[in-house]
Amino acid sequence: MSQVNPTIKELFPQIDIREAEALSHYTYTKTGGKADILAFPKTAVEVQTLMQYAQKQHLPLTIIGNASNLIVKDGGIRGMVLILTKMAQISVQGNLVYAQAGAKLIDATVAAADAGLTGLEFAAGIPGSVGGAVFMNAGAYGGEMKDAIQSATVLLPNGKISEFDQTALHFSYRHSQIQDDNSIVLAATYRLQPGEQKVIKAKMAALNQRRAAKQPLEYPSCGSVFKRPHGYFTGKLIHEAGLQGHTCGDVQVSLKHAGFMVNLGHGTATDYIHLIRDVQAVVFDQFGVALQPEVRILGEDLID
Question: Where along the chain is the active site annotated (predicted)?
């Protein structure tokens, strides 16, 4: 009698693994098709194990953090997807804040503030994960990850775990070395400075009030859709192009902030992508400026 090959769930019973799972349950846009295999590792060793399994089985491997600055296409993602949100430990030692990749960046800023450490206030309202923030050198209000990061722990494609210092991460605007070499961020260490807790928390509160007043936080969205073109403000360009309120399907260029696109209720990833293309075409036609997406777009189109 031939032996039946064990399923991935049977091979790794200690890991939360789901098959044919809709990613719309996890994305901030509330859109996205199914992942063939979706896993939630809890440790760096589990990430290592799953990566090695995917390589052995020739499965494409996709890493997702908090799925905030992300559009997953309606056809879903083939192969294996890892969501790292169960790796969320944060600790503080002296002037250093250590956070695992799946920790919410907002939680890291709160831990820093509670410890009276300054330097992460700019990130107080960024909804992404620590790993995603390192991956894209996330920033807001004049600050970026490169300004606070001391080092990142990464899993290399060869299966080895390495420490990249700030220089080795090669940060630039919304970019890091991680995007180029298919490494996986496992954790980050921030080197901050002592400050006055009341002042730090007051600055964070002021930035969050500013964000709430200007951004459409009441709707599902993928955050800031486009990178800032040199010499321009993206939202101003889109507004001046007459596109504020423009919709594709049930996705709209936000009436509150033209740099955002919101899901009005029944929007799809395809609606988002069509709206992005519309905005790019009109802005280029009117101003000669080529808008580049900041949001990551992953997966496959839905085939009818």
Answer: 174, 224 (proton donor), 294
